[in-house]
Amino acid sequence: MAVIVTIDAGSKADAELIAAALPGRPEAASWRGYGVVRLRLGHERETSDLLSALAECVEHHSIGWARIRFGEQERTFKARNMRAS
């Protein structure tokens, strides 16, 4: 069964970084000031690769936060190397 995945980020620029790191090159958009990436997967088991790619991207680019939602699941990633100002 196909799964619709939505990834939210703090800005469109963050969403563009995330989109560039994902397979299939989905497009980033902006909605109410937040960045959004939407994509469709063929099956829910494909989400594990997507979760790994998203976690790596958030760390690599020091993205403040990114939330992924699919089906009934939701998970938030935050960069561990962020410094408080």
Task: Describe this structure as you would to a colleague.
With 85 residues, this protein is an alpha+beta fold. The protein has a single domain, classed as Alpha-Beta Plaits (2-Layer Sandwich). Helices cover 28% and strands 34% of the residues. It has 2 helices and 5 strands, in the order βαββαββ. A 5-stranded antiparallel sheet has the order 2-3-1-4-5, covered by helices on one side. β2 and β3 form a beta hairpin. The radius of gyration is 12 Å and the shape is globular. The termini are far apart. The model has no long low-confidence stretch (mean pLDDT 90).
Characteristic terms for this protein:
alpha+beta, five-stranded antiparallel sheet, globular, 85 residues, Alpha-Beta Plaits
The CATH topology comes to Alpha-Beta Plaits
How would you write the strand order of the largest sheet? 2-3-1-4-5
CATH class: Alpha Beta
The tally of domains stands at 1
Overall shape: globular
Helix content: 25-40%
Strand segment tally: 5
Beta-strand percentage range: 25-35%
- Poorly predicted runs are none
| Largest sheet features | 5 strands, antiparallel
H-E order: EHEEHEE
Q: Rg, please?
A: 12 Å
The class by helix and strand makeup works out as: alpha+beta
Average pLDDT level: 90
User: What is the end-to-end distance?
Assistant: 44 Å
- How many helices? The count is 2
The CATH architecture category equals 2-Layer Sandwich
